[in-house]
Amino acid sequence: MLIHSMLAATAMLQPSDEEAVLQTVDRFFEAYYDRNVAGVKATLAQGALGHGLVVNGDSRGITAPLDMHQWAESLKTLTTRNNELYWEPKVEIRAGSLAQFWAPYVIEVDGVLTHCGIDAFTLVKAQDEWKLSSLQFTMEPRGCDELGYDIRREGMRPASLVEHLEGKIRLPRQ
User: Fold this and answer.
1) DSSP E strands: which ranges in the chain?
2) In this structure, what CATH number is given to the domain that contains residue 31?
3) What is the pTM of this model?
4) Which 3 state secondary structure label does DSSP give 71?
5) Is the preceding peptide bond at 141 cis, omega within 30 degrees of 0?
6) Is 8 within a domain?
């Protein structure tokens, strides 16, 4: 009986897989904000790639594939403070080891709102740890209203970065 109670208590302390996925994404953005190369790399699967889609009115452009481990190394020379937060995340998990994360986001660079967009990340679970394997995102300088961004929005994540939002400049609306 005691062992059963201890196992149940341990299970209750473990975050759900959905929350564990969100915690991985949170750690990624916290490390990005801190320019912490090792912290970013700790959230990435081996061979992780990224792609961005710039959406500016009727114009579209896809970035070259990003080797996310090389991108993380570039944080060593980053001189800006980049704060990225997301809201209303959707997480789908299949077979206990594959997850899809989808959420609107906002990014401020040195306190200036530069754009909003959608983050669409794929995560894989290995050794009981979720890792980002594929990171796709849109960059929409005029998409903040459509995506529901408001600096006063409740529930933005990672919670540790909300206090750093400044909202100095609002971009022109569509």
Assistant:
1) 44-56, 59-62, 66-67, 82-86, 90-94, 98-109, 112-126, 129-139
2) 3.10.450.50
3) 0.87
4) helix
5) no
6) no
